[in-house]
Structure formats: structure tokens, C-alpha cells
């Protein structure tokens, strides 16, 4: 069974009904991952809370701060492969809710962003199903871990092999750990190093976080839904890379939903294999949800995976745009990105936008990049074409009327000699000096870009 989509209305800032489509695993690495991106305070955490609200033995209560004041009615729908489960307010103005379920229930295992747990704890056991049932949404907003998590540690220690395998894949080694009993009658997590040991009290937040994330994965089953908020917190980039590889492996046959601010988790290979890329942004203060369409996935794949001559087009620098509000500037190539700051300095005007990575890898790819940005809800995108590519402007204007496409006042960013191709006159000559005759036209170009982006 799979969770096909989630709809939210009246919950926190979601005044109107928004639909979040989730990836369905197809056997390929990462195909079951749903990557939720967006700026801070855009509404990502509310999606995580809505998923967590599915769990618990009783229906959650939504206080005044959890209900959108204009409607005061909450309705969350969980669209499954075998029916629709609904969580909704019993009536307007009430904090209480009711559930209606059809078919087999989902198994949603949620992990909040703050994954610290008590350094000293008492003995108890909870298997996966028991933990899911007890992990209800708190009445007050919190990103902290359930108090029941330490009961999972005792389950792990009984047979730690599968857990250690997952943890080792992320860390690069398996730590020597165990649960011990202190003199005060409380247990603690013990880590042995050489001839001494220390407890989880002195352990770095990143390692503690990975313990919790590994627990969310190691005993999951095909068809499970695993929800992890901000998996990157306190993690070194190397750990983030390895963790995404683990997500991709588990995402072959189960659903993994992550809300993230890290470029390492907006993984091109996973997206090409079927992962959902979902962007949340606020319009007039209200969250709206956008996602990469299936037909655009092919265009994305052709750029991000298929172009071996320009593997950096959707590299780490380029993927930063997924976490920005808007105002994207597209240059054709790497040289434009490198040299234009010099041009800005010489004409005394700076571009008021966010430059996309190291260029689009050629003017012909601007159309495909715009398709991706349109699907994800970007409203202000400006493409700057070299003068010898001006013929591409009319079709781009027609396909993307909200976006702006302008022409560089030269055939290229710099002079280029006739080597296999005709010579080109650039903004900058072979000595790196800006052509004085093009200063005014360059100023006009930058002013047009800025006027469009700031209007």
C-alpha cells in the first residue's frame, strides 16, 4: 500500500486546500523519495505535522494556533492506493477532530527535526507498530522527539545487526555501543573508545541524530512511509551524502518523505528515477505547493544526468535555487557567471537576483530550465542570452510570458577567435577589458533585469 497524496486545508497557514503528491517506489534507487524544499517559514513543517497527525490511538486536538483563523475548520485527507483516510474538525470553532478510515491503515513512522533524547532513561520496549501508535501529534507545536524513543533502543540492542549495518553505511564505520545501567538506577547509551567509554550525554548532536534516523529505517518494511524532517541538521556534508545514498537504497520499495534545506538531498539521480520534488512557497502569506511534473522530469533528466559534457548544470551550486524565494537569473554558460561580476563592477551596477549555478550549459537548455522552474512555482526568472542566440528569444517569450529574456549587447561575454567556429566579438576583450562602447548598453541591460526582478 502507498500514500499517493496528502491534502491539507485549514491547518495552520493552509487556508485553501493544497495537495502534496508523493513519489511511488518503482524499484529504482530513490524512486520512492519525496523531497520537500522551500524557504524558511514556507509551510514545510506543517506537512510533516499533518503526516504525524495520522498516528496515535486517539484523534489529535487542534488548538487555536493550529487552525487557520479564517476558517477554523481543519481537514486532512490521506489518499492511499486502497482508499482515503480523513482527519477533520468535528465542527467549526472546536479543537476536537474525528477520523474516518477505509481499507488497511498506513504505517507512517515520523522523525522530527530535533532528535536529541534523554541521556538517562528507564527500561521499556516498543516495536515499530507500538511506537507508531504512541507517536501522536502533541497538542502544542514542537519539533522534538517523542519521549518514547528510548524504548526503541532496547529493541535494537536485542539484535543490533541490521541497525548497525545502516548506521555503518552512513558513518563509514560501526561504533562500539551498548546500553548500560548507572548507579542511580537509570540506563544510558554507552560508547566505547579504546580503553574508556562515554555516554550519549557527551556525544555530538550529529551522531545522536543518526541513531534516530537509522532506527527509522532499519526495521522498516516494503510499503512503509518514513517521514524525516531536516535530516541534515548537525551532519557533516560527507554524512549527508552517505545518508542520501541510504535513503535511495531504502527508497526502492518504500516511501521516504523528507523536508530539507540541504542541496545534498535534492539528488538529481533520485529525481530522474522517480523521486518527487515538491516546493512550498508563500503567496500573500499563504503556503502554496508546487511539484515537478512527469513530463518535465524528462527534461530535467536530460540536463542533470544525460549531459556528460556539462555534469555541473544541476550541481550543488545550481540546486541552491530550490531553497530560494525567487528572482533567478539564467546565464548561458560558466564563463558568463564568472565574468559578469567584473562587468557589473566596471559599469557600477549590480544584478539584483540569484544567479543559477554555473550557467545552463548552453542557450538551448534555458527552455528546459524554465520548465523546471515553472513547475516549482518560480515567478521571477530572467534569462540573458548571448547576442548570437537572439533568435531563441521569441519562442522563449511565447512559452514563458511571465519570465523575461534579454539579449547581451555582444555576441559573447568575451572575444573569441576563429577556431573551428567564426570569431565572436564579446563584452570583454582578450585582455579582460570591458569594451567602452558597450558600457551604456550594458548598464541598460542590467537596469532592465533589475526593474523586472524588483517590480
TrEMBL record:
InterPro entries: AAA+_ATPase, ATPase_AAA_core, Bact_Antivir_Def_Nuclease, P-loop_NTPase. Signal peptide: none annotated. Pfam families: AAA_21. Gene3D superfamilies: P-loop containing nucleotide triphosphate hydrolases. The keyword 4Fe-4S does not apply. It comes from the Bacteria. Keywords: ATP-binding, Nucleotide-binding. Residues 30-288 form the AAA+ ATPase domain. GO terms for molecular function: ATP binding; ATP hydrolysis activity. PANTHER family: ATP/GTP PHOSPHATASE (PTHR43581), ATP_GTP PHOSPHATASE (PTHR43581:SF4). This is ATP-binding protein. It comes from Aquisalinus luteolus.
Amino acid at each position: 500500500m502507498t500514500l499517493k497524496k496528502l491534502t491539507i486545508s485549514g491547518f495552520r497557514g493552509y487556508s485553501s486546500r493544497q495537495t502534496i503528491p508523493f513519489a511511488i517506489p518503482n524499484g529504482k534507487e530513490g524512486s520512492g523519495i519525496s523531497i520537500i524544499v522551500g524557504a524558511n517559514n514556507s509551510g514545510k513543517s506543517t506537512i510533516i505535522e499533518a503526516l504525524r497527525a495520522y498516528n496515535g490511538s486517539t484523534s489529535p486536538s487542534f488548538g487555536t494556533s493550529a487552525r487557520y483563523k479564517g476558517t477554523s475548520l481543519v481537514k486532512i485527507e490521506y489518499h492511499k492506493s486502497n482508499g482515503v483516510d480523513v482527519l477533520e474538525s468535528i465542527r467549526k470553532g472546536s479543537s476536537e477532530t474525528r477520523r474516518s478510515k477505509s481499507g488497511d491503515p498506513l504505517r507512517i513512522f515520523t522523525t522530527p527535526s530535533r532528535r536529541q533524547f534523554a541521556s538517562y532513561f528507564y527500561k521499556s520496549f516498543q516495536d515499530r507498530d507500538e511506537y507508531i501508535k504512541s507517536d501522536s501529534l502533541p497538542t502544542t507545536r514542537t519539533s522534538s522527539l517523542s519521549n518514547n524513543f528510548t524504548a526503541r533502543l532496547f529493541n535494537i540492542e536485542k539484535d543490533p545487526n541490521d541497525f548497525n549495518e545502516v548506521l555503518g553505511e552512513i558513518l563509514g564505520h560501526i561504533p562500539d555501543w551498548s546500553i548500560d545501567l548507572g548507579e542511580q538506577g537509570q540506563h544510558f547509551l554507552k560508547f566505547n573508545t579504546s580503553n574508556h567509554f562515554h555516554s550519549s550525554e557527551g556525544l555530538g548532536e550529529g551522531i545522536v541524530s543518526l541513531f534516530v534516523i537509522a532506527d527509522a529505517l532499519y526495521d522498516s518494511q516494503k510499503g512503509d512511509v518514513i517521514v524525516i524532517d531536516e535530516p541534515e541538521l548537525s551532519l557533516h556534508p560527507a554524512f549527508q551524502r552517505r545518508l542520501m545514498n541510504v535513503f535511495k537504497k531504502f527508497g526502492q520499495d518504500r516511501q521516504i518523505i523528507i523536508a530539507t534545506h540541504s542541496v545534498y538531498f535534492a539528488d538529481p539521480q533520485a529525481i530522474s528515477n522517480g523521486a518527487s520534488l515538491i516546493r512550498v512557497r508563500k503567496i500573500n502569506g499563504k503556503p502554496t505547493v508546487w511539484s515537478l511534473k512527469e513530463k518535465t522530469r524528462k527534461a530535467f533528466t536530460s540536463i542533470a544526468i544525460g549531459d556528460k559534457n556539462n555534469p555541473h548544470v544541476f550541481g550543488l551550486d545550481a540546486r541552491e535555487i530550490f531553497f530560494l524565494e525567487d528572482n533567478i537569473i539564467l546565464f548561458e554558460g560558466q564563463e558568463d557567471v564568472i565574468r559578469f561580476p567584473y562587468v557589473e563592477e566596471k559599469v557600477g551596477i549590480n544584478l539584483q537576483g540569484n544567479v543559477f549555478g554555473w550557467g545552463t550549459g548552453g542557450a538551448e537548455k534555458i527552455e528546459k530550465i524554465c520548465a523546471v522552474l515553472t513547475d516549482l512555482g518560480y515567478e521571477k526568472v530572467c534569462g540573458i542570452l548571448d547576442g548570437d542566440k537572439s533568435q531563441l528569444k521569441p519562442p522563449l517569450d511565447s512559452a514563458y510570458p511571465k519570465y523575461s529574456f534579454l539579449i547581451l549587447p555582444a555576441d559573447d561575454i568575451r572575444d573569441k577567435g576563429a577556431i573551428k567556429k567564426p570569431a565572436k566579438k564579446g563584452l570583454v576583450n582578450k585582455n579582460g577589458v570591458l569594451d567602452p562602447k558597450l558600457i551604456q548598453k550594458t548598464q541598460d541591460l542590467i537596469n532592465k533585469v533589475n526593474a523586472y526582478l524588483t517590480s
